[in-house]
Amino acid sequence: MFLRAVRSEFQKILTVRMWWVLLIVLVGYVAFTSGLLAGVFGGLGDQLASSGGNAPDITDAALPPIIYSIASSIGYVFPVLFGTLATTSEFRHQTLTPTFLAQPHRGTVLGAKLVTLAVFGALYGIAALVASVGLGASILSATGHSTALGDSDTWALLARVVLAMAIWAIIGVGLGALIPSQVAAIVIVLAFTQFLEPILRLMTSLADWAAGIGQYLPGAASDALVGSSIFTSMTAAASGAQSLEWWQGGLVLFGMAIVAAGLGYLTSWRKDVT
Amino acid sequence: MSTSTTIDVRGLSKSFGQVQAVTDLSFTVRPGVVTGFLGPNGAGKTTTLRMLLGLVRPSGGSATFGGRAYRELARPLATVGMALEASSFHPGRSARHHLSVYGTAAGIAKNRVDEVLGQVGLGDFADRRVGGYSLGMRQRLGLAFALLGDPGVLVLDEPVNGLDPEGIKWIRSFLRQLAGEGRTVLVSSHLLSEVQQSVDQVVIISRGELVYDGGLAALDGGTRILVDSPDRAGLESALRSAGADVLALEDGLAVTGSSAADVGAMALTAGIPLSRLTPEHTGLEKAFLDLVGEGGRP
Ligand SMILES: Nc1ncnc2c1ncn2[C@@H]1O[C@H](COP(=O)(O)OP(=O)(O)OP(=O)(O)O)[C@@H](O)[C@H]1O
Ligand SMILES: [Mg+2]
């Protein structure tokens, strides 16, 4: 029963265009950003450092993880949107009717959706890594820097990027169930991830007492899980941002996903379908 | 085909906040016949059908298929097939994919998808995105979804909506055929005339309450006599005391169960002059409108 529900959810995603449209934008965006970063710090970084300017102080060893983790530190909004759209489109197109007719146990449907989107989130993570590592490592080695690809720590980081992307997709599903209006959900996701959270993270990093709170913001928890992020490196250099251990970050992020999905189930998912 | 079961509705009620959509509704739908589920717009038909299928939670009462609620059925889509009014499709998905998504979830054999698409006449359009479908094509796809599991019970909400005359003819004979195969068929409509050629039994509701449950033939009001007099009040009491079944209308009186000659004789006996004496065949549609009140509510 559950397996059938999961297969149905996979089919739902693969039979409309959204998954690859989002994927192309994600890969393009991550490739552009990581290429730019590798170019700037790999190519010009030496000159900036020797000129003694106040460029962010990023050591050679820290550079590869920062560039590779662009896949999640910048790209995480895509699995969130993906999960949100997958859920809200069911409300928007009233496809919850045939869905619940084919599988009247609504919890099973939501569970199948969470599993399915987690898999797609992980696949998005892998695709984004192909972009960030592929382009980033090429530029790093071309400019005479270490790519750190022989280092097992690097591969552990890549695996954590995939995990983070999977959890973000689950968060998206939960948000979609919490906010069934598609437009409202997209606006909230974009406003929070692109605008509100970066500001909050910057502000909380300015005071010690706030930094302890700031590390629990979802983006901060995700960066902690991955273990590296352009955002953390930039702010940590300038201020006192704190970061959780990687496993703590993972648990915080996963906890948020479960809470969002649980609240979504208790609110809109169990409602009358009219 | 799976075994056909009865649909048993017992004391079903639903309120949406202040709106009492369905009130204490009870009726039984039997296999082997087409049952019409009729009522004016807003009478509560869709709400009732959605409660049958577990999509809307009743405020009271129950609806079961052979004793089991929809969510308790072992193979729901293969037991009960339904086409609901709202067009519940993702516009970017093709008809074939639409059916296979839900067929997969319900564990229905893959070859059924092409079978039902052919059955409803959509075989040539199976790979087109549903967003480009006409209303009639969507209705047909809805019907294909209902047939997907080859169910013994079919629940159809306004399936005639949007179909062209040929489509209407086709669905009428199709419904008969399905019932002839021994299936339980419940089909809703807000127009009696739309389904009267294909239904045997009717359940009529108005403002959420049951007003008629029985055979179509018995619904026909037969002939009534319209009668009037300058002394209408006097005529009415005279007819009543003579034992006639009199209904006061805006523009006269209507007598049922008596012939025009009888009514004329009653008036003569009482010495009341008549200004009108006309037999009128009421017909099904009139009987329906009388039952649901003046058009029900909007
Ligand atoms: N989700 C809802 N929230 C509030 N009121 C509702 C809801 N769904 C239906 N109603 C109300 O319940 C009543 C019955 O509606 P329903 O859709 O069941 O009627 P219907 O018989 O199917 O009408 P139609 O012939 O127009 O399809 C109406 O008054 C309607 O406004
Ligand atoms: Mg309706």
UniProtKB/TrEMBL annotation, chain A:
Keyword Membrane carried by entry: yes
Segments passing through the bilayer: 20-45, 65-86, 114-135, 155-176, 183-200, 246-266
Highest taxon, organism lineage: Bacteria
Keywords attached to this entry: Membrane, Transmembrane, Transmembrane helix
Name of the protein described by the UniProt record: ABC transporter permease
From TrEMBL, chain B:
UniProt entry keywords in alphabetical sequence: ATP-binding, Nucleotide-binding, Transport
Keyword Nucleotide-binding: yes
Gene Ontology MF term list: ATP binding; ATP hydrolysis activity
Record InterPro entries: AAA+_ATPase (IPR003593), ABC_transporter-like_ATP-bd (IPR003439), P-loop_NTPase (IPR027417)
Keyword ATP-binding set for record: yes
Family membership noted in the UniProt record: Belongs to the ABC transporter superfamily.
Full protein name: ABC transporter ATP-binding protein
Naturally occurring in which organism (per UniProt): Terrimesophilobacter mesophilus
Taxonomy of the source species: Bacteria, Bacillati, Actinomycetota, Actinomycetes, Micrococcales
